[in-house]
Design brief:
Blueprint (H helix, E strand, L loop, with lengths): L15 H14 L1 H14 L5 E7 L5 E7 L22 H8 L7 H7 L3 E3 L14 H6 L5 E3 L1 H5 L3 H6 L4 H23 L2 H16 L21
Parallel strand pairs: 3-4
Antiparallel strand pairs: 1-2
Helix pairs in contact: 1-4, 2-3
Length: about 230
């Protein structure tokens, strides 16, 4: 079932009430782990436990994305992208990032309705590609914690570390490929496929060494070649 016809059709994944209920249940079940992480972050470096960053959500509406803080305070003034072994990352932050645990507070975003469990990762405003069909389609859906593009680009930071200009490489090469994957999934998604993505994501989190190589299945395209 889709929300519109033609190339702009968007499939329907998990119903919103189930999405929110699963996120709330996850917060409850993981509360001891969340508390332990909060203590580790607070003891690891001065500053708040949570990091809030403006991202672009459904229909282009901005919202505050939540993460456990993994960098020293003020690190975002030195650059928006994280590349390779970024020296701004704290000791506890390195562990949290490697196991994707820094993303767990986004379950609150899902409960609030800013995000879904499954959907394209929300971008910073500076990286939203105006006038690009795949971008426009993706913005018709709620962003999510994970989707096929997230699974395909698990090694993104290492790739950007090898680029002369990481931000430009991300904008011109990585982002268009991710949008192509996210848009393709958005067109054909179902509740069952969302469950499958969640299961695959759990496997990657629990066994990161078995994650798919960066960009498997993606077809990178320069942003300038896309209308």
């Amino acid at each position: 079932m889709t929300e519109a016809g033609g190339d702009g059709a968007v499939g329907r994944g998990l119903p919103r009430p189930i999405d929110a209920a699963l996120a709330a249940a996850g917060l409850l079940a993981l509360s001891p782990l969340l508390l332990a992480i909060a203590v580790a972050v607070r003891r690891g470096s001065p500053g708040p436990v949570l990091y809030r960053q403006q991202r672009v959500g459904r229909h282009g509406e901005p919202f505050a994305l939540l993460k456990f803080r993994t960098m020293r305070v003020g690190a975002d003034r030195e650059g928006l992208l994280t590349v390779g072994d970024d020296t701004r990352i704290t000791r506890s932050g390195s562990f949290l990032r490697r196991h994707k645990l820094d993303e767990l507070p986004q379950l609150v975003n899902v409960v609030r309705g800013d995000m879904s469990l499954v959907g394209a990762r929300p971008e910073l405003p500076t990286f939203v590609l105006a006038g690009v069909p795949d971008q426009e389609l993706v913005l018709r859906t709620r962003p999510g914690l994970t989707d096929p593009a997230s699974l395909a680009f698990t090694g993104e930071a290492d790739v950007l570390a090898r680029a002369d200009d990481p931000a430009e490489h991300y904008r011109q090469r990585v982002l268009p490929a991710k949008l192509a994957l996210s848009a393709d999934y958005a067109r054909r998604r179902t509740a069952g496929s969302d469950v499958g993505v969640l299961l695959r994501t759990a496997g990657v989190v629990l066994a990161p060494a078995r994650a798919a190589p960066l960009g498997r299945g993606a077809r990178p395209r320069a942003a300038s070649s896309r209308r």
